[in-house]
Each structure stands twice: as structure tokens, then as C-alpha cells.
Amino acid sequence: MSELRTLVVIPALDEEECIGATLDELRRLAPDVDVLVVDDGSRDRSGAVARERGVAVVRHVTNLGVGGALQTGFRYALEHGYAIAAQLDADGQHDPAFLAALVAPVAAGECDVSIGSRYVADSGYHAPAGRRLGMLLFSGVVRLALGRRIADTTSGFRAYNRPVMEVCQHDFPVDFPDAPLLISLGRRGFRLREVPVRMRERRAGTSFYTLGKSLYYPYKNLLASLMAWIQRPV
Amino acid sequence: MPFLSKTQIIMAIAALGLAATVLDLVRRRRLSEEYSLLWMVSTVVVAILGFSTPVLKSVTHALGILYESSMVFMIGLAFGTTMLLYLSVRLSRLGREHQAVIREVALLRHELETLAGREAPTPGAGA
Q1: Domain map of chain B by residue range?
Q2: Residue A92 region, left (φ>0) first, then alpha (ψ -120 to 50), else beta?
Q3: ipTM surpassing 0.90, yes or no?
């Protein structure tokens, strides 16, 4: 891996069943990165399980959502002098074996944000039909706004450099940092790149994106995408 | 038109009562001056329309509204909508500020635990 210091940020909400295995696997496959678990107001032992493994844990007293957790991770990374922050799900969907490939283009200065994509190459991932439809929709929205294709806009397996983290301190779609974030970053001139990765089924627990959110998510994300498109970058 | 209709009198008295309530809430610091402004403006407008028939009639006519009572309803609705929109904006801002505070507390708490941990001998991975 590169000599630039990388922080892996893992947002966790009620993930005590799988976060231990995720951290163990990460330690085994990427031993040279530092890890920060952002416990986003969990009511289970997620934070304690992470602490037992000796990684840094920052705890939100209430739930802020993935975006809020990620923003906390960025703040931590900036304050502690990390050059790159990589976002990894606690549920084991993201294979740490691909972390080095994800971070490499950012570390080499070839792009500002790298996105671990299920679709750049055949990754063996099969999403449910509803979700696939949503991915197609948001991929189309991003293509309209940025004039280029990003196949996997909902991927939460990404790496960011410092200038991106600094911008995200002030302007960030808090609820769901997907298509709106990519549009907003692309419009600011940050270079985005997709990196092929393999994704797996989550180990246990429930996804951030479920039930009531299945209706709110498309609405919110469409509106936020539109806003990111027409807003002047501040 | 020297005579006030019953509706107008009730309206004017209600407006005055509301104004008094708003002022009292401000006095007891239950309502901040900032929020009281919108309420005071609306009560004053309603009181003027209630006490002055010519003003009520001319405004109603000028806006092309057929009945004075519709005019009163419209003002009430406009005020309600404005207030709700204003509160939504304030709530959004409070939400953002609330998030910032939670993040700050989380990071400070972590910092504190790290400092406390340094004093006690623990096997730490050199970062």
C-alpha cells in the first residue's frame, strides 16, 4: 500500500453481530491502515466490540445517519493528519481485499474520490430488482448532471483525499451520501473514478436502507441530486 | 360605514387578545422576540381590518375578493402558511446545528478517553 496514511472509517449502527468479523478481516487483509469506527448511536454493543479489538471508536449520542457518521470520520481524519479516508461498511458487504486497489488511485493523485463499483467488471453481485431500478435511476441522474457515467452511485465503498474531506466539512448531504454527493463533488471539479470491487451479502443485522426509508430515500435523493446540480458550489 | 358587524367585532377582540397573549409570553420569556414579530404583525393586521370597515371593504375589493369573510380566511391561511414555512426553515437549521454539536461531543469524548488511556498503561498500537 502507499506511504500516505490512510484511515478506514466504518459507520456502525447496531452492528454488534458482524462488526467484529469485519474488523478481524480488515486487520488480516489490510494490517497497515488505521481504523475508526463511528458508532452512530447504536443501542447494542457495536462500540464495545470494536473497542475490544483496539480500534478507535467515536460515539454519537443519537443517530445521525451514514452521512453524519462519515462527516465525523472526515473531521477525525483531518485533525489527525490522514491523507486519505476510506469508507467501509460494518456489515461485511465490502471486501477489505479490495481496499488497496480502492485507495491506490487516490494515493497516486490520479483522482480525488475513488468509488468501489460492483458494475465496472463482473463482480458476481446481484441486487434485488427494486434496488437495481433505483441504481439505474440515480446513475441516470448523475449522468445528466455530470455528463459522464458512474455505474454504482450507491456504493458506500469509497476513498477520499484531504481536499474532498475539507469541502465535505461544510457541505454534505447528511442522510444518504450517494448520488447527491457525487454530483456535488463532480461539479466542484473533483475527479471521480470507479474501481472494480466485489461485494457480498451483508453478514447480519439490517441495512441502513430499509422499510420507511425505501420511499423517503428516492424522493430525498432525487431532490438532493437536483439541488446539487443547480446549486452554486459554496 | 360607522357600524361594525358582529364578525368584525369578534375578529378584532380575538386579535387584541392574541396580541396580549403574545406580549405576555415574551414578557415571561416563554417566546423569543424573534418569533413574536410574525405574530404581532398578523394580529395588528387583523385588528385594523376588524375595527375599520372601510379598510376591510377596500382591501377586499382591491384584491378582487367577493366577500369580506373570505378575505379574513385568506389572511389567516397566509399567516399560517408563512409561520409553518418559517418554522420548517428554523427546524432545518436547528437540525444542522444539533448534528454539529453531536459530532463535536463525540470527538471530544474520544479525545478525553484517549488522554485518560495514556495515563493508564495500555497496549496501544502506534499510529
Answers
A1: 6-92
A2: left
A3: no
